[in-house]
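4.2 Preliminary Data

To establish feasibility before requesting continued support, the project team ran the inverse folding procedure on a target of 514 residues. The structure was first converted into the token representation described in Section 3, and no sequence information of any kind was made available to the design step. The complete token record follows.
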């Protein structure tokens, strides 16, 4: 494979003084999975990580593993060719900032040393083949560092040759399992003829159910409040749901409906579902069968997609300064630092929004913790776009939120946050609020109205001039009451609030100022 060329190229990466150029704030993780090889590169910026590169290649290593657990030369060659591409990107990164892990297929292969010797020569780095339980532990940490959740959660990752199942709380896994079933191995075993038939699906589901039942009792006894998926299979299901106009929550009836759509296609060559990516089609039926079995045996009511998995777990193990922090708070802090947000003022607006929400707690049924959390996040980021320009800074901020990676927020939460920031001032665009799927349109509207008022009431950017306000609601009609004579002494505030009454009236919302 010409490993001498890669070693030489690494040696030639020098600065002007003839010394190796090292980027000490850049980190790289390579995941040698059974279906795909992935490389993730990040830079530590503003107390968080900024992705600067992702490379993914479909290697399907597990397809080269025969019944005797011997990995074929063809499969190994596909892997080596992929790693030759990765090696170029690793040349300028310190070895201490690089981690490379191998998973199920490399665990199983009897001739794994043959693959590893050549692979390590190509990369110039050691490769760690991790156990199933260690893979499950790292996957859980990757989820914990990228998804916000305080309660017990079930984490599932369907890989090419194994499926990891974890229950944990916070950053601590409680139950760990790795089962010998994956979307590549089940594809070879149950969909070899490429037929999308009931017989094929039923055989794959039954086999997965048998495997899951070996560990199901202890998981059902442990229990969990939330379920998240950390794999391409779960991402594919979510993309299909969104592509078909549904929200992001995966349920068993929805999975079974997707299976019926696949059955109607009849053959892998004819598989064409709205939202299903081309690169995912080959392993889609087998992954779907495994996911249906997991929902049935573990009685999973609903599942969303996590923000990270194995690669992120490995990454954060190299970044002790970022470990065991509140994920969402870390993201907020990083965004405020990177975009030069006035943090003191952002907190002032967030506190005002919390005050108004507390007064309407009963009348508007604002008991949803996530709804109030989104309100606070919207307040903290409402000036995100000021770094670009003032006039349309609410639009710029919304664009950034919509396209940024925000650990601790699901995609649906991110869309609600975008809608709040977009509508926090000036003209109200109700269609943007109606397109978010995290919550009801009614709650999104209520949160928007509270954020808009909080921004106006905090406009002087000083704590000591904040008015004592009272807010009440009769159905959707709001009345904002300020101290007697206060508006007479604050004519600009009066003008802003009167303009806000017009904005809300145009949107069909009633607002009175007293």
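Position-by-position output of the design step:
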């Amino acid at each position: 494979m010409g490993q001498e060329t890669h070693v030489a190229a690494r040696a030639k990466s020098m600065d002007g003084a003839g010394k190796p150029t090292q980027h000490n704030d850049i980190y790289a993780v390579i995941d040698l999975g059974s279906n795909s090889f992935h490389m993730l590169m990040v830079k530590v910026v503003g107390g968080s990580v900024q992705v600067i590169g992702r490379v993914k290649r479909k290697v399907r290593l597990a397809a080269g593993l025969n019944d005797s657990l011997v990995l074929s030369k063809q499969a190994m060659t596909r892997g080596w060719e992929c790693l030759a591409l990765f090696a170029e990107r690793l040349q300028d990164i310190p070895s201490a900032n690089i981690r490379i892990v191998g998973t199920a297929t490399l665990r199983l292969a009897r001739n794994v040393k043959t693959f590893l010797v050549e692979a390590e020569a190509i990369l110039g780095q050691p490769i760690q083949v991790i156990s199933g339980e260690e893979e499950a532990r790292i996957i859980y940490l990757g989820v914990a560092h990228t998804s916000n959740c305080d309660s017990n959660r079930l984490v599932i990752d369907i890989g090419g040759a194994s499926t990891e199942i974890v229950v944990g709380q916070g950053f601590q896994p409680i139950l760990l399992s790795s089962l010998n079933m994956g979307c590549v191995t089940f594809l070879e075993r149950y969909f070899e003829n490429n037929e999308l038939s009931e017989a094929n699906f039923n055989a794959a589901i039954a086999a997965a159910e048998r495997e899951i039942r070996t560990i199901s009792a202890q998981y059902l006894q442990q229990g969990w409040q939330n379920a998240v998926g950390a794999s391409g299979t779960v991402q594919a299901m979510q993309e299909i749901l969104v592509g078909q106009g549904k929200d992001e929550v995966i349920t068993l009836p929805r999975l079974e409906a997707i299976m019926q759509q696949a059955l109607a296609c009849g053959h892998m060559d004819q598989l064409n579902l709205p939202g299903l990516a081309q690169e995912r089609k080959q392993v889609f039926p087998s992954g779907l069968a495994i996911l249906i079995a997991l929902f049935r045996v573990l009685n999973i009511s609903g599942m969303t997609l996590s923000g990270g998995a194995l690669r992120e777990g490995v990454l954060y193990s190299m970044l002790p300064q970022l470990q065991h922090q509140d994920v969402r708070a870390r993201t907020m802090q990083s965004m405020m630092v990177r975009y030069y947000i006035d943090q003191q003022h952002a907190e002032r607006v967030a506190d005002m929004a919390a005050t108004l929400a507390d007064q309407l707690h009963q009348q508007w049924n604002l008991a949803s913790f996530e709804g109030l959390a989104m309100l606070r996040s919207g307040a903290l980021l409402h000036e995100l776009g000021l770094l670009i320009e003032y006039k349309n800074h609410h639009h710029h901020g919304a664009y950034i939120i919509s396209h940024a990676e925000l650990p601790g927020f699901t995609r649906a939460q991110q869309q609600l946050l975008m809608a709040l920031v977009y509508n926090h001032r000036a003209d109200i665009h109700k269609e943007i609020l109606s397109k978010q799927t995290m919550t009801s349109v009614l709650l999104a509207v209520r949160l928007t109205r509270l954020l808009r008022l909080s921004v106006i009431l905090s406009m002087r950017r000083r704590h000591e001039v904040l008015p004592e306000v009272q807010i009440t609601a009769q159905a959707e009609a709001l009345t904002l009451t300020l101290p007697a004579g206060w508006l007479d002494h604050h004519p600009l505030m009066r003008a802003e609030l009167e303009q806000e009454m017009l904005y809300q009236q145009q949107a069909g919302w009633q607002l009175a100022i007293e």
